[in-house]
Every structure is written in C-alpha cells, then in structure tokens.
TrEMBL record:
Its cofactor is FMN. It is an enzyme of class 1 (oxidoreductase). Pathway: Cofactor metabolism; pyridoxal 5'-phosphate salvage; pyridoxal 5'-phosphate from pyridoxamine 5'-phosphate: step 1/1; Cofactor metabolism; pyridoxal 5'-phosphate salvage; pyridoxal 5'-phosphate from pyridoxine 5'-phosphate: step 1/1. This is pyridoxal 5'-phosphate synthase. Its EC number is 1.4.3.5. PANTHER family: PYRIDOXINE-5'-PHOSPHATE OXIDASE, PYRIDOXINE-5-PHOSPHATE OXIDASE. It comes from Hibiscus sabdariffa (roselle). Residues 108-152 form the Pyridoxine 5'-phosphate oxidase dimerisation C-terminal domain. SUPFAM superfamilies: FMN-binding split barrel (SSF50475). Keywords: Flavoprotein, FMN, Oxidoreductase. Gene3D superfamilies: Electron Transport, Fmn-binding Protein, Chain A.
C-alpha cells in the first residue's frame, strides 16, 4: 500500500523506500497496478502501467516539503524492534536539530506510474457487475482510448 501524492500528465506519483520489498519488485518488474476502492459506493478503479523513478530533483523537492518527523522516519530501514526505531528517531532528531536541513536518504524517492489501462468497476447485488476497460489504441495516427465492456 502506498499514499498517492500526485497525478500529472505523466502519471500517478508516490514516494517510498527504494530498498523496500516493493522497491525491489519494481526494479525487477517495472509494471504495476493501482487500485482505488470505495466500499460505500461499491466501486473501484484499477490503473495499470509502467513505472519509472521520478527525477532526483523531484524526490528532493517533495522530501523537503514533508514534516521533519516524516523526513527523519525515512532515514531508517530495517530495525530489530520498535524500541530501536524510537531510539534511532530520538538520535536523528537530536542530530538534525543542530544541523538544520535533513538530507534525503539515497534509498528514498518517488515513482511514477504511466497508465496504459484503466478499469472502472461498479458492483451489483446481482453479481452482474459493470466493468469498463479503457486502453490506448492508435487510429488514423492519433492515440485514442478504446472502451470495452468486460464480463462480470
């Protein structure tokens, strides 16, 4: 699970630890799906596409816009226990209270998913769910989104 931080014409952006499990998986297979689910509305949107790291400058800019506590929390990786996490946090908080600017860790940054497929799903009590899939297709030299209805 990730916190989506932005959407622009290039795609959907989030930030995380590049050395995390998802970071390793994306380095091996740079394709992913995002799922937005609204239980109360019985709807979801699935977005699929290729994933690339955002620029170092974009990651730096976002990192320094975060609260200091979030910046400090991004420095830690695997810890043997919660007590160690709290101790490291205190030590880093003290260190950076004197130094000012907290440097962005090399293992931390953003990803952008460039969508190439959308599926809109609306659940039905009959289980005959509405599913519409959008994907790009070239027609007469122009990229257009083709829409197909999928079986439930």
């Amino acid at each position: 699970m990730v916190l989506l931080k932005g959407v622009d014409k290039g795609g959907f952006v989030w930030y995380t630890n590049y050395e995390s499990r998802k970071g390793h998986e994306l380095s091996e297979n740079p394709h992913a799906a995002l799922l937005f689910y609204w239980d109360g509305l019985n709807r979801q949107v699935r977005v699929e596409g290729s994933v690339q790291k955002v620029s170092e400058e974009e990651s730096e800019q976002y990192f320094h816009s975060r609260p200091r506590g979030s910046q400090i929390g991004a420095i830690s990786t695997v810890v043997p226990g919660r007590h160690v996490l709290h101790q490291q946090y205190k030590e880093l908080e003290e260190k950076y209270s004197k130094e000012g600017l907290i440097p962005k860790p090399k293992h931390w940054g953003g990803y952008r998913l460039q969508p190439n497929r959308f599926e809109f799903w609306q659940g039905q009590t009959s289980r005959l769910h509405d599913r519409l899939e959008y994907f790009p297709q070239e027609i007469d030299g122009k990229r257009v989104w083709k829409i197909v209805r999928l079986a439930p």
